[in-house]
Design brief:
The structure is a single chain. The chain has about 180 residues and is α/β, with parallel strands linked by helices. The protein is about 40% helix and about 15% strand. The chain is built from 8 helices and 8 strands. The strands form 2 sheets. A 6-stranded parallel sheet has the order 3-2-1-4-5-6, sandwiched between helices. Strands 7-8 form a two-stranded antiparallel ribbon. The longest helix has 13 residues. The radius of gyration is 15 Å and the shape is globular.
Length: about 180
């Protein structure tokens, strides 16, 4: 926690944009737009994830060329990720272990659900928000396996409008 206090400001938002299950990921352009929203509202975006998504985090930082972005994807331990999440104002991310970790450390969460089952795995409580397009084929994850009926279009994630997602974020921040 002391390390996190020196590494990121309190006015940070932790983001997990590139889930380990590719079907649950926002696109690069969606991720970029969301980070821009975070920056334009005066928050410091902190990118989280494992080594499997490290290249995506690096690519986002390279494309955005903004030194306020803290890319921790693939470079922090689980305990360090927990400390960064706990230090932040809010966590935004897809259905993942980090989303549940954010709930566990007591930080408000905006959980983004596409193929995942938000009724089963969505964060619960007044401090949390679940965002989903609620397309008819979602959820397509059953018993841990994602079996899309959309033939790979993943419109449950690919057609998310970041402006609409940000409305859910603002509601959560105003609580």
């Amino acid at each position: 926690q002391q390390w996190a206090q020196t590494f990121i400001p309190k006015n940070s938002i932790t983001l997990f944009l590139v889930a380990s299950i590719p079907e649950r990921r926002l696109t690069f352009e969606q991720s970029k737009e969301l980070v821009e929203y975070v920056l334009n509202r005066g928050f410091t975006p902190v990118l989280l994830g494992g080594k499997d998504v490290q290249k995506e985090g690096e690519g986002l930082v390279r494309a955005m060329k903004d030194e306020r972005i803290k890319n921790c994807a693939g470079t922090t331990t689980f305990a360090q990720s927990a400390a960064l999440i706990q230090r932040s104002r809010l966590f935004i991310g897809s259905d993942s272990g980090l989303l549940h970790l954010a709930c566990a450390v007591g930080i408000p969460v905006v959980g983004v659900f596409g193929p995942g089952n938000k009724a089963k795995w969505g964060p619960r409580g007044a401090r949390h928000t679940t965002y989903s397009l609620d397309v008819e084929c979602s959820p397509c994850t059953r018993f841990g396996y994602t079996l899309p009926t959309c033939h790979g279009s993943y419109h449950c994630m690919r057609t998310i409008k970041i402006k609409e997602l940000w409305s859910a974020v603002e509601k959560n921040l105003s609580r």
